[in-house]
């Protein structure tokens, strides 16, 4: 009898502990709609920086206490400006891309300025732009344009910009082959990325692990151990999309100890955050290790992706959105390893 009561008590305490941990912190606590697309990075001093779309302008919110509290969002004013290469039209949109930290510790934010005059003469352009901050997101440089190529703008960078050799940036584009960009010379070149089958997929994200391997996530997951010269498919990846619309609802996070985390959701009615850890540099995955947090909470997926960053050696944090706002969930890594 005593043992049974003890087991029940321990199950209650574990359940209560899990429930207590799963309390998202609001970054924006109001009803929202449209292409909000929050993204997140961690600055060199531990500051967390979240960027998302406001009223046709990108806004930035910061946390200096590991996501416990967040500053009032401030506008990244340059993101609201129409670039000179885009003609003025009545129907336009500022479309968020991603926020990343560069090796020199500057913060990079990308976005699209979309001009839609199809009804008049078929005109539609989606210029890719960026701005930099050297003070942890407090102020931002004037916008700069990436592209166009052969008269065509590049479109969206959906997940992250990967710093590359020679000061270049690797851009995994929403449409088309990834491209390398040199911000000093404005030179763009294609980055062919094919597996054994010779197929050039679109890749939503390309990351570099702590061990130096590269992972490219598209309709398949590819891995390279020779700086991208050769790629092999990774079997058993739990977040392979069942259709193209779900391909962007996933995010890879490389951890400092060599593990790799994928966060994802599916479809327009997704509930909860799904996590799965690879413990060997992204080589192998086990779908049975998937952990779902906030299973009853709507979390936008499909064209939106919840994005996770490492907060410290023991913790990750995920920014996500739903119709009720933008939220941040801090998660101990041990919870994602199957133990409390």
UniProtKB/TrEMBL annotation:
PANTHER family: EXO-ALPHA-SIALIDASE, SIALIDASE. Keywords: Signal. This is exo-alpha-sialidase. The keyword Signal applies. It comes from Gimesia algae. GO terms for molecular function: exo-alpha-sialidase activity. Residues 1-20 form the signal peptide. One of its GO terms (cellular component) is cytoplasm. InterPro entries: BNR_rpt, Sialidase_fam, Sialidase_sf. The keyword Signal applies. Transmembrane segments: none annotated.
């Amino acid at each position: 009898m005593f043992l049974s009561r003890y087991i029940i008590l321990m199950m209650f305490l574990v359940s209560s502990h899990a429930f207590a941990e799963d309390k998202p912190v609001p970054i924006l606590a109001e009803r929202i709609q449209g292409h909000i697309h929050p993204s997140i990075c961690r600055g060199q001093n531990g500051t967390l920086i979240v960027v998302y779309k406001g009223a046709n302008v990108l806004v930035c919110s910061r946390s200096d206490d590991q996501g416990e509290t967040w500053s009032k969002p401030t506008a990244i004013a340059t993101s609201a400006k129409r670039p000179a290469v885009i003609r003025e039209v009545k129907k336009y949109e500022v479309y968020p891309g991603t926020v990343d930290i560069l090796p020199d510790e500057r913060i990079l934010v990308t976005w699209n300025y979309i001009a839609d005059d199809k009804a008049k003469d078929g005109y539609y352009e989606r210029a890719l732009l960026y701005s930099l901050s050297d003070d942890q997101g407090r102020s931002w440089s004037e916008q700069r344009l990436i592209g166009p190529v052969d008269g065509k703008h590049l479109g969206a960078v959906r997940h992250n910009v990967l710093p590359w050799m020679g000061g270049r940036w690797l851009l995994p584009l929403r449409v088309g082959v990834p491209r390398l960009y040199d911000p000093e010379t404005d030179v763009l070149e294609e980055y062919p990325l094919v597996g054994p089958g010779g197929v050039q997929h679109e890749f939503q994200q390309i990351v570099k692990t702590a061990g130096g391997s590269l992972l490219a996530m598209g309709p398949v997951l590819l891995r390279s151990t020779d700086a991208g010269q050769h790629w092999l498919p990774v079997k058993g990846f739990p977040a392979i999309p069942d259709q193209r619309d779900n391909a962007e609802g996933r995010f890879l996070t490389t951890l400092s100890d060599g593990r790799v985390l994928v966060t994802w959701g599916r479809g327009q009615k997704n509930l909860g955050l799904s996590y799965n850890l690879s413990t060997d540099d992204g080589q192998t995955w086990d779908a049975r290790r998937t952990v779902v947090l906030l299973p009853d909470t709507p979390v936008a997926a499909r064209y939106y992706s919840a994005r996770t960053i490492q907060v410290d050696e023991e913790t990750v944090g995920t920014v996500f959105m739903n119709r009720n706002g933008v939220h941040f969930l801090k998660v101990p890594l041990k919870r994602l390893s199957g133990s409390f």
